[in-house]
């Protein structure tokens, strides 16, 4: 059984035994990968006693605060409740990331409950993340043009960063149109239905990504989820006829805030410095970001374990509630910490500054390639 020191060493101190990783993008730090596997063997079980109350509680708090914001006559109370609703629903929504990595037999009923409570009401059913996120974790396809969740943002023009954030403001309206208009029309026009699936059924930031048809074993489930989301979107559109614009407007404002917060988190989830070449697991790890404690603000903008995003790329099947302990063990491990600690950052501000500074330097960048990438952001669904 693996044990950890009772008094962990200073994680920033160099280990006298560890050799710093200096490999290229195709080489791995085998000591880090071995330590990550060995030190976390006892942490791989998803605990329903944590998942269920966290997800359900976040959703109920979020919807309760949203309802209060809709009916409140006080501007300040409405704003305060909208903030609570944004943070709570954002946390509930990000369980979609956990669903992608949970084994199908783990936590029976959790996927269905999440879709009914969060995915369909927020027009982001789980199939929008399934499959695509698996590609993002592929050693051969991470950071390549086939990766739906990667753009070399650090190598693009500076103005693409605010465009990347601002486009997310329109995400809720886009989702209402995708499910409330395009999905029903797709029943009449097969070509539109195929386009809707290929281009607008994945939570992607790479506008060149085209989704393939679902696997036969998933088709019925995906159709059921899309149907549920379409019915709900039609209800939302029709609701203005009998309850007016305010409820829908407030809800869309909160969902836009959720989308912007998620886009900011996405912006600092990676360093975005790969131009399309396949990368080793270690190189992927170093292109990804941890924002570990002692700071607590990251737990708000990167909840459900996403403050340990780089660690997640090392151990994608580890449940979110185990990432903190895994981090402590690896940060104290003499052979691993030299490379492991290189993916740690202090917060969102320094990361945005680093990426923005990189867009301004861009040594040897291709103007034609930059123009194509920059223009493509505006087309991102």
From TrEMBL:
- State the superkingdom: Bacteria
One GO term describing the cellular component:
membrane
Write out the GO biological process terms.
lipid biosynthetic process
Q: Where are the transmembrane segments?
A: 50-70, 76-96, 108-129, 163-189, 222-243
List the InterPro entries hit by this protein, alphabetically: FA_desaturase_dom, Fatty_acid_desaturase
Region: Disordered; residue ranges are 1-27, 359-381
One Pfam match, by short name?
Answer: FA_desaturase
For this chain, one GO molecular function annotation is: oxidoreductase activity, acting on paired donors, with oxidation of a pair of donors resulting in the reduction of molecular oxygen to two molecules of water
Q: Where in this chain does the record put each Fatty acid desaturase domain? A: 75-332
Keyword Membrane tagged:
yes
Query: Sorted alphabetically, which keywords does the UniProt record give?
Result: Membrane, Transmembrane, Transmembrane helix
Its recorded name reads Fatty acid desaturase
State the taxonomy lineage.
Bacteria, Pseudomonadati, Pseudomonadota, Alphaproteobacteria, Sphingomonadales
């Amino acid at each position: 059984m693996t044990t950890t020191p009772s008094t962990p060493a200073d994680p920033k101190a160099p280990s006298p035994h560890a050799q710093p990783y200096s490999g290229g993008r195709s080489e791995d730090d085998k000591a880090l990968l071995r330590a990550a596997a060995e030190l976390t063997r006892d942490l791989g079980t998803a605990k329903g006693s944590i998942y269920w109350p966290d997800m359900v509680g976040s959703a109920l708090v979020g919807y309760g605060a949203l309802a209060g914001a809709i009916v409140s006559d006080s501007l300040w109370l409405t704003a305060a409740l909208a903030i609570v609703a944004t943070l709570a629903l954002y946390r509930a929504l990000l369980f979609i990331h956990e669903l992608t990595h949970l084994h199908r037999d783990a936590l029976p009923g959790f996927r269905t409950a999440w879709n009914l409570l969060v995915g369909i009401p927020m027009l982001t059913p789980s199939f929008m993340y399934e499959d695509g996120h698996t590609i993002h974790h592929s050693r051969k396809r991470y950071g390549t043009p086939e990766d739906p969740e990667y753009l070399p943002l650090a190598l693009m023009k500076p103005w693409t960063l605010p465009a990347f954030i601002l486009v997310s403001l329109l995400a809720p309206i886009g989702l209402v149109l995708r499910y409330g208009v395009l999905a029903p029309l797709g029943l009449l026009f097969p070509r539109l239905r195929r386009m809707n699936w290929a281009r607008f059924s994945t939570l992607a930031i790479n506008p060149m990504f085209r989704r393939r048809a679902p696997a036969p074993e998933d088709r019925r489930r995906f159709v059921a989820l899309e149907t549920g989301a379409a019915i709900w979107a039609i209800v939302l559109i029709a609701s203005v006829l009998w309850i007016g614009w305010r409820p829908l407007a407030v809800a869309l404002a909160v969902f836009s805030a959720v989308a912007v917060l998620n886009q900011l988190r996405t912006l600092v989830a990676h360093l975005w410095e790969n131009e399309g070449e396949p990368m080793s697991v270690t190189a992927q790890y170093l292109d990804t970001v941890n924002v570990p404690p002692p700071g607590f603000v990251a737990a708000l903008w990167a909840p459900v374990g996403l403050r340990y995003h780089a660690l997640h790329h090392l151990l994608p099947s580890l449940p979110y509630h185990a990432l903190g302990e895994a981090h402590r063990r690896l940060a104290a491990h003499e052979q691993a910490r030299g490379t492991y600690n290189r993916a740690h950052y202090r917060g969102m501000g320094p990361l945005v500054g680093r990426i923005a500074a990189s867009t301004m330097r861009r040594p040897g960048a291709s103007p034609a390639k930059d123009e194509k990438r920059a223009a493509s952001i505006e087309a991102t669904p």
